[in-house]
Amino acid sequence: MKEKRSYVIAGNWKMNNNRSQTKGLITQIVPLVPQAGCEVVVCVPFTNLETAIKAVSGTNIKVGAQNVHFEKSGAYTGEISAEMLIEMGVEYVIIGHSERRQYFGETDETVNLRVKAALNAGLTVILCVGERLPDREKGLTNELVALQTKAALIGVTAQQLDKIVIAYEPVWAIGTGKTATSEQADEVCELIRSVIRDLYGDEKSDKMTIQYGGSMNAANAEELLSKPNVDGGLIGGASLKAKDFAEIISCAK
Ligand code: 13P
Fold first, then answer.
1. pLDDT averaged over the chain?
2. By CB neighbour count within 10 A (0-12 exposed, 13-18 middle, 19+ buried), where does 200 fall?
3. Which residue's CA is minimally distant from atom 7 of ligand 1?
4. Whether residue 12 has its Cβ less than 6 Å from ligand 1
């Protein structure tokens, strides 16, 4: 099964690095990952996209944004459309990250609107789902993650699904140093795969790239990525250090 899928390792820089730091970090990453056995993506702040796109030119690294608005244009102060990202040469976008759900009022409904707008414009989506600690403690992980996944994909066609990567990010593991065990990660990634199977059938679910994210680092990546349902990582803190990010990438073959 796993050989049918491409690994994707994506760095989510969050609100870190200015433009000169962006150029510097990408310049350090480039020579470390030319033989990567996976897709390599860096998701940078909007203001660094142009710098990042120039810095990865001619390399195997792709650039992503960390959010996108669902309308094409109009009176939406402070927002950026999918068409604007495409025009710049952006290829990926993270949608529904838990920090956006927690701090910026993102809901399953707006996540779904953003997913459809991004796909229609031609972006590849990294769709984030994951439970909070109280949800896990109440035994609600599977129901919640299944609901988030289904809600995000309403109206998404089987063909469009090829441009979606799903990232399972348990909220309690993000930035806390508390990684999910590889068994916990695999179990929920398998659950997500079964949701895709129910919605789109076996072939699509076998091909779906499902990442784990949450305190993934150079020391635990190999174990997490060896699991049958884990096909990559969405990396926060460790993606800000070239050597650590490259070590994680070397585990994804
Ligand atoms: P950390 O790797 O810093 O825990 O962040 C994970 C994350 O939120 C990636 O989107």
1. 97
2. middle
3. 236
4. yes
Is the shortest distance between the CB of 174 and ligand 1 below 6 Å?
yes
Please tell me the distance between residue 74's alpha carbon and the centre of ligand 1 in angstroms: 32
CA of 130 to the centre of ligand 1 (A): 12
Active site residue 69: no
Q: Which helix (H) or strand (E) holds 133?
A: helix 133-137
pTM surpassing 0.85? yes
Coil, strand, or helix at residue 6? Answer: coil
pLDDT tens digits for range 174-209: 999 888 999 999 999 999 999 999 999 999 999 999
Beta carbon of 61 within 6 Å of any ligand 1 atom: no
At 224, the amino acid letter reads L
List of E strands, 87-231 = 92-95, 124-129, 164-168, 210-213
Q: What is the predicted pLDDT for the residue at 4?
A: 77
Q: Distance between CA 4 and CA 7 in Å, rounded?
A: 10
| pLDDT tens profile 131-185 | 999 999 999 999 999 999 999 999 999 999 999 999 999 999 999 988 899 999 9
pLDDT on residue 129: 98
177 CA to centre of ligand 1 in angstroms: 9
- pLDDT category, 1, cuts 50, 70, 90? low
Alpha-carbon distance values, 20 to 41, 47, 48, 49 (Å)? 19, 11, 9, 12
Catalytic option among 69, 91, 97, 106: 97
Q: What's the distance, CA 167 to chain centroid? A: 5
Q: Say whether 125 sits in a helix, a strand or coil.
A: strand
